[in-house]
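Changelog note: in this version the structure field was regenerated for every chain. One regenerated record is shown below for reference.
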Amino acid sequence: MFQVRRAIVVQLSGLFAIVAGIFLASRILPVVDLLASVQQHVMHWGVWSAICYPLLYACCNVLLLPGGLLSVGAGFFFGLWWGFFIALFGNVTGAAISFFISRWIGRQWLKRKLSGNRTLGALKPAVEREGWKIILLSQLHPLFPTSLLNYLYGLTQIRFRTCMLWVAIGQAPGLFLYSYLGTLGQLGLNLARGKTHPRAIEYWVWLGGFASAAVILILLGRIALRVLQEAERKTREDQRTDSFGDEISQLQPTVSQQVMTFHDPNLASMRESRREVTADVRTRKKV
């Protein structure tokens, strides 16, 4: 629980630090006007902005670059719901490309690279055993490198459609939280420019919605961590069991040879001949 909460706090603290830095810079530089100009420029592209933005997000995903800032930007430029769906589409597109590369192009190379990581090595058989459950929980967990996991999924036997469905479901809560934060940034920009004058109750509603989303994400991360740790423990126990079974299998031929030697017919015949000779000698002595 502490690790999940710490990961979320670190990420959100970084975003708040960026917001605070922008606010302080706005005291000296025309940051508000610059952000408004960027927003208008992006929206001026119309449909092309909604096409290019997910592609940019997908490229960051494939290249293992952090996409949190882009998720916030989606909410800032396109609003809560459109920003959420655009970020989700870009994320799933990047996951599909990574899956394709891992399964059909760089399978052997990626298998060698990922085999050195104990956690990922334990997660791979867990995905093959549990399927969609591990995919969903690993995407919900804020500590797991989800972009790297997309390559791991391609090394398993999981079906493409099943994988993409649960990647999308697992990513949805976190992306919604980031898009919500971007929408709050859009609200702050409109406040700074004097375009909106919300009432006090609206501030509480917005902050309450953000806090609720953060709490839900923390709880989901806690559940995911517990189940993933259990799956990792079970995988390592199975590996130890398989190793012990291999050792027993190696010992079986040796034991079988010893048993065969013990029950060798020639050896038994020699012992029978010795007993007959001994009995014959004893009979002659008596005579």
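Spot check on this record: Residues 259-263 have pLDDT under 50 and may be disordered. The CA atoms of residues 240 and 246 lie 10 Å apart.
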